[in-house]
Design goal:
The structure is a homotetramer. The first copy, chain A, is mainly α. Chain A is built from eleven helices and no strands. The first copy, chain A, has helices at residues 24-41, 48-55, 59-65, 69-85, 98-113, 116-128, 133-160, 169-180, 184-189, 199-217, 220-232. The longest helix of chain A has 28 residues, at 133-160. Chain A binds a DNA duplex through residues 16-21, 23, 26, 47-49, 52, 57-61, 63-64, 68-69.
DNA sequence: GATGAATGAGGGTTCATTCAT
DNA sequence: TATGAATGAACCCTCATTCAT
């Protein structure tokens, strides 16, 4: 015998009204409004009324979906973090030509981190870090930190292949990242630069950064391979 | 020529009570109170009453010296910037052993930039940078940027002495700074680290950073000198 | 005439679903939820959501049965009054030994009126009496007032039997009630006492109160009967 | 030598502007507004906006004088309590004719406790007693309880003079008070009576109450004295 | 008819700014 | 000129009520 009237609680496939705080469309709508306001004004200066207006939902609805202002902000930052760091590390998965891979990765990283949107998000997190330090910590841990681990893994593989010689891989990974952002990150975050760096700038910085990095850590074998490569080309 | 007017407003010119909003002592007093409060709590959380109390002046007086909270904050940041970067670059003035000088400078820079006080000040500026972009820009321009110029000058001197070979000195100066802060700055500003790095950590980072830098940019002559040095020692 | 229409709305007329706001079971269910919440929290602090949860019905349903929060509260108080004063006066129905009957009745009355539940209900009514004066009036009229009438009837019977001599029976009935509650009611309702009086306390108060009452209103005949009674015992 | 410029902080006899939260006129103004609103609506239903309007001061000013709504309410109740019970017990200080003194005192008490103003204040306290039980307790303790002690002292003096014979003076004092309020207090507080009792009603209740009390507790000596008194009159 | 998600007015409280003293 | 008491708009959040489902 076929179940004809499925318990609606268990099998809610119908397009009926979602439970309170469960409608993903509404949730996204609120987050989107919150994004505009928080990113634009920072945590403190953003008012729930602003968000209400921007999101096009009522105050009460926001408070059904999010416990309070802080939780809404945290949810937004989580989202933002996910968006920012998504796909950033894929290029490290396929080990190809070392220098080329580092440059490609570095350019992606640098472009992303210094893009207007991402800078603004980071500023918001930094600005709120005094009030909600765990938030900043979590952002770093699940974003930059995770990327850092990927870079370390990549460097370790290069070491195993005899292309790099590094004593302190952890530190080297940081150095690599910083070299790719040399000068750009701080300029952007302090709004000394009001526009994101151009692709050309980024290429210049990253190419040079990778060069420094490889001069410091590249092995004889790596140099020989590069020379051989260059000659065949 | 002698002022003859008996207008009491002008009498103040002679050592009497300064004109409204003109007494530099009072101004300093206000800024000092503002420093404690703003740095401690951040821009939004700081209340004018707190500052009033901390500065030991009345609300009205503050508003004579500063248009509003934002302007007071800007004035403070200007001051703070001066304090932070004061003396940071002295070590570059006396050209000594290259590696040693770079390490000493790098450690001073890194320790300063990542100290709790300075991190908090930077967070506050960054957090306000969306609302007051010029503030962040000015902070960077007269702080980090000026330091950057000093580093460039130093590198140019090393180049002239034949110790370094650098194509893009501007970029190299950034690279040097970033290498000295590798991993630390972002961790601090996002409050992933809740405490300033220890002296040992800073030494490890800077020593390695200088090493990378010199491997990338040191000339044969520099290497020879270092070897000679090491042998005599 | 037979209803022929197949309109499903009208089918409900036959024992099916009751008309909106007419199902007495559901009504009782709502009142029961409201009781728990209102008595526990007081009128203002009670939220319709609490009642919704406690009653196990939806918000909309409550608003079908009751115009608004205030009307629901009034309905509850009506009910509550019935419950409180139910059975309180039975002991007066069987005229037995006068002193004994008065003590038994007085103790029941005193225990009931000062019980935690009832005190809270009375507080809630009193607290709302400014906003909804009729509510308090109705509560008194159908509760204490009705009891007062019963006491008067009882006293009149005792007068007829020659046991009491009272000029103003109405007033004497009040005096009797107050003597049974001496000190307790006000202490409870102002929450000077946070717990209901013990049985022993109540006995002490009521015994003494009845004694005062009988000394004031007992006839020579009553005294003689009591003496006789005591001697046989 | 005479102090000519008294330190204004120490000797502020001038009629200058009072310190924040220190102006007794403004404080009284706020309390007066609060009285109207709280007494009229009860604690919860009263809004600070209402009080603001009624008191004719700004919201901020209220919060300078009182920490929060609850403290304002408590301050009001303290005031109210003071006003209510002031002078109520003076009549007990001069021991005169026993019955006469008791009647005079009882009538003052009864009239006061059942006056419209005082009933409303008591209702407000009772209504808030769920939320702020200590407040009700304090009100009772410093008001009715203190009066109760005065009555006990008076009764003890009468006992010493051989006019009364009482085993449990504490209880007897409560009984006396309740007899003076017989039926009135509860009727008023539940707003069954919407108007305060007339002087005649009060006289009737109190005269009868005192009579009951003296019949129960008066000594032979007291009766003899009264008889003697009556004959001379 | 019943539901409960959504609404938005209004709650208590804070604080940058003003202006009488 | 300096003061700080007073202001009131704006803050975050709650909850009685409505109405689409």
């Amino acid at each position: 015998m076929v179940e004809t009237t499925a318990d609606s609680d268990l099998l809610d496939l119908r397009k009926g009204r979602p439970a309170a705080g469960q409608d993903p469309v509404k949730r996204a709508q609120i987050i989107e409004g919150a994004r505009r306001v928080f990113i634009d004004k920072g945590f403190e200066a953003a008012s729930m009324n602003d968000i209400t207006r921007e999101a096009g939902v009522s105050k009460g609805t926001i408070y059904v979906y999010f416990e309070n202002k802080e939780e809404l902000f945290e949810a937004l930052i989580e989202e933002e973090r996910g968006t920012i760091f998504k796909n950033m590390y894929e290029v490290l998965d396929h080990f190809d030509d070392l220098r080329h891979t580092l440059v490609r990765f570095g350019m992606g990283l640098s472009a992303k981190i210094t893009s207007a949107k991402v800078i603004q998000a980071q500023r918001t997190v930094v600005g709120a870090a005094d009030r909600i330090p765990e938030l900043g910590a979590r952002f770093y841990e699940r974003g930059p930190k995770r990327g850092h681990d990927k870079v370390m893994a990549f460097l370790n593989e290069a070491i195993e292949r005899g292309l790099l010689k590094i004593d302190d891989v952890d530190l080297a990974a940081y150095q690599f990242t910083e070299l790719c952002l040399a000068g750009l990150f701080r300029q952007c975050i302090f709004s000394y630069r009001t526009k994101a760096p151009t692709q050309a700038e980024i290429e210049r910085v990253v190419t040079s950064g990778v060069d420094v990095f490889l001069k410091a850590y590249g092995t004889a074998k790596f140099l020989a391979e590069e020379r051989a490569h260059a000659e065949t080309a």
